[in-house]
Design a protein that fits this description.
188 residues; alpha/beta; 7-stranded parallel sheet; globular
């Protein structure tokens, strides 16, 4: 199984359901990189088209990949070794296709359900059985824009807790989802 992840900053809904580009969050870089490395992701794409935000992302990535941070904190350097900044979702797909020799199937996450929603168990089984690479996308803000979502192969079932509140931070959602899809089978 070959899995890539991406954190999407555009096209994203804001709280008023307007399409915007969200800002980079330093914790998203660090925490999701550490989680992604723990679960064996090939690459973690920061998908950010805003030039100033992309430069900021690249500066943080460079600091931990080749700058002083890479000498100071080797575990963080290893986590950041899989990070790459790209401008669009299609750029990430194209890079995967060039590396793997085939287009990945694209799965995203959302707190809402869609016609092409897939369960964690079915996606886990597909990842284990399929040689096609997978790009798993996480949205920021209030989620990825609806027309963009419709282009993806699958959308994972929302994460539900024990109560009716459902507004996880993306870092927590990424950790839960990667564990459900790629973690040890502890329930058997």
């Amino acid at each position: 199984m070959t899995v890539y992840i991406g954190l999407v900053h555009y096209p994203i809904y804001n709280r008023n359901m307007e399409v915007v580009t969200t800002s980079l969050t330093n914790y998203d870089l660090h925490d999701i990189a550490r989680t992604a490395r723990t679960y064996g992701m090939v690459k973690y794409f920061i998908i950010q088209p805003n030039e100033a935000q992309a430069k900021l992302a690249q500066a943080v990535i460079d600091y931990w990949q080749t700058g002083y941070g890479s000498e100071y904190h080797k575990d963080r350097k290893e986590a950041f070794s899989i990070l790459q900044q790209v401008a669009t979702i299609e750029d990430a797909i194209q890079q995967i296709q060039e590396r793997e020799g085939q287009r990945p199937f694209v799965v995203t996450t959302d707190a809402r359900t869609y016609p092409n929603t897939i369960s964690y168990q079915l996606l886990r089984d597909k990842l284990a059985a399929d040689d096609q690479p997978c790009l798993l996308l996480f949205g920021t803000g209030w989620g990825i824009e609806k027309e963009t979502m419709a282009k993806f192969d699958f959308i994972l079932t929302p994460i539900y807790g024990a109560v009716d509140y459902n507004h996880l931070p993306v870092r927590a959602a990424a950790a839960i989802i990667l564990d459900r899809l790629l973690g040890e089978i502890w329930w058997k």
